[in-house]
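Quick one: NAD kinase from Limosilactobacillus pontis, structure tokens please.
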Amino acid sequence: MKVAIYNNETAESQRVTKLLRAEMKKAGLVYDQQQPEVVITIGGDGTLLSAFHHYQKQLDRVRFVGIHTGHLGFYTDWRNFEIDDLVDSLVHDSGQSVSYPLLDMRAVYSDGVVDHFTALNESTIRNITKTMVCDVYINNQLFENFRGDGLCISTPTGSTAYNKSVGGAIMDPHSVGFQLAEMASLNNRVFRTLGSPIIFGADTKLILRLRDVNGHVLTCDRDQLMLKNKAGQRYLMELAYQVSDQKINFARYRHTNFWNRVKDSFIGEAR
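--- reply ---
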């Protein structure tokens, strides 16, 4: 078993990393940052997002395990005091895993260049200088003309993150699809959008065609691209979203109920 460790820079995460490496060595597990079979992240959901993008080209060969050293995370099943149990699970690993869908995004520019991204949580497009205006196409048919702050497109597992903050629905992580949520849309007798989140199926293709050339900010998970247009330079014209052909695989040595986690994070104990 070859294991990589990806941690944040907090003192607690570094302490856990040192302890984990020592216990792995005792158990005969191989520490390999380049070609791992399992990637263990130590920190929180942000650390796991960073690890996901670091090992993105190896998704078909690696499984992820998350240890959280702070607040409860949606991707981190293990606590910092469970190192012995985790190492024992790694030693007795039988390849068990659970897979979740990812979001495929293609950005098309005015000069014909196409950038390709894959998101674990979400992608957003906003205009930071004025109202964003774009045409929304579903399976190549015009659905609506959007005006507002921006749009958030999220995966099922990412639905509890930024998507929820802008009024999107929480999706079961075993669903295969993605979601579109509006950010401060303009709805009046002149301008009209659906005004509610839309959940798409596995075969849906969503296209956003931008009408403006300045002021856009595009994100993919934690990465942000400022899309500035100057005379003679390219600008963003279109974004295309669909369920990715890739998936993320988690080594699940024990079952963590998603809806219990949602309840604990957002509701707490019933009174």
